[in-house]
Amino acid sequence: MRGVTRLVLVHDGACGGCSSIAAALAGLLTVPVVTRSCRDPHLAAELPVLRAARPRDACAVPMAVAIDGSGGMELLRGVRLPLRTATLVAPGRRAAALRLGLRALWRHLARSAARHLEVR
Prior knowledge:
Elements: E1 4-11, H1 16-26, E2 33-37, H2 43-46, H3 57-60, E3 63-68, E4 73-77, H4 80-86, H5 94-119
Parallel strand pairs: 1-2
Antiparallel strand pairs: 1-3, 3-4
Helix pairs in contact: 1-5
C-alpha cells in the first residue's frame, strides 16, 4: 500500500472512553481522520475490507482502515493499529500521541482485568 491519505477509525460509539480516544487521535495525525461507529449498518458496504473482520470483533476491538490515494484499503487492528498510526503522527504531536497511547493501553488492561474477574 502506498502512502495513507485518509484513515477511518472504527470504534464503539456507545463507549464514551472509546469515542474520546478516537476523537483525540484524529487531532494528532497528519492525514484526515473519519471516526465511525462499529454499529453503523452501512459500514461494511462502504469499507469492504471490514468484511475480513469477524462480526463480533467489530465493537470488541478498535480498528482502522487506512486508505491510499488510489482507494486501496488496509485493515488495521491489534498490534498493527498503533504501529501503523504511529507513522502518521504529526511532528510536534508525538508526546501527546504517547500519552494517548498509554491511556488507551490502560483502558484495555482495565477492561481485560474486569472481564477476567467476571469469569471467575
